[in-house]
Amino acid sequence: MKKVYGxxxxxxxxxxxxxxxxxxGGFGLCGIPELLLQAIKEAxxxxxxxxxxxxxxxxxxxxxxxxxxxxKKMISSYVGENAEFMRQYLSGELELEFNPQGTLAERMRxxxxxIPGFYTKTGVGTVIADGKEHKDFDGQTYIxxxxxxxDLAIVKAWKADETGNLVFRKTARNFNVPAATCGKICVAEVxxxxxxxxxxxxxxxxxxxxxxxxxxxxxxxxxxxRTVRGA
Length: 231
Hints:
Elements: H1 8-12, E1 21-24, H2 34-43, E2 48-51, H3 63-67, E3 71-76, H4 83-90, E4 95-98, H5 101-112, E5 117-120, E6 134-137, E7 140-146, E8 150-161, E9 166-167, H6 173-181, E10 183-194, E11 213-216
Helix pairs in contact: 5-6
């Protein structure tokens, strides 16, 4: 089965449709599948729902799709660095479902494991719990959260072999792994593709069985908040 494609556009060919649900990896500006997001922008696919920890910034990550009004709804934890996100949300142009960060990660992981729902204490007694099922366990109240089952998952890794086994670097591992597992189809972009068998099996973070298509590309190294000390 062919997994390695020549470009992001080729890897997404036949997978995109208006109104689809996409799970995207990334944490802050780290591990964002920037090449795949650019290809989605160029394809013009619209009315998209994204599950992602954040929406990048105005000109990077999912932020480029907000600029072109291709995103209908965001399921996110943190959106504080994106002015266009804030403008669209406050004006009623963008739907937003806030999730606590750990809950969002677990919703993705649960979807990847085929678990339709789970109970958590996080959010009990807050607006997060509004409209959700409550249940008591051992005298403690929990709310039910639903697993995320996306039409497509897009992720960014450091290294892969030709069968799609992935290795992430540091912070990029946070949301990329659960996001990759919860999509019906997973497309990954990486900095390097090595021959099959050259990765240490103990060092693989995501088995290739989850990855359907793969591209290698050049990536921009961004710093979200640069803090320096004067001389």
